[in-house]
Amino acid sequence: MLAGSEPTQLALGPIARVERAPGGHVHLHVGPVTVRLSPSAAASVSETLAEAVRGLELELSAAR
Of 17, 55, 61, 64, which residue is the least packed, with the fewest Cβ within 10 Å? Predict the structure, then answer.
């Protein structure tokens, strides 16, 4: 590979990893699946997932 062509790891969790590619895209790795996103699309996915998790947490707390 060319120098500087390696992605930069932004976040690492037990199931997912997020990297910034040299071209500026964000790579979201979840298990064997990789999704390539623009930075704005990655932000939108993050907001949507956070909203879903908040909804799940509300459902779980109501069931207790």
Answer: 64
In-domain check, residue 46 = yes
Q: In the numeric block, which tokens belong to residue 14?
A: 């037990």
48 located within any domain: yes
Q: Within a domain: residue 12?
A: yes
SS3 assignment, position 1: coil
Of 36, 6, 31, 32, nearest to 16 by C-alpha is 31
Count of domains observed in the chain: 1
Q: Does residue 51 come out as left (phi exceeding 0), alpha (psi in the -120 to 50 range) or beta?
A: alpha
- Indicate whether 2 belongs to any domain: no
pLDDT for residue 64: 84
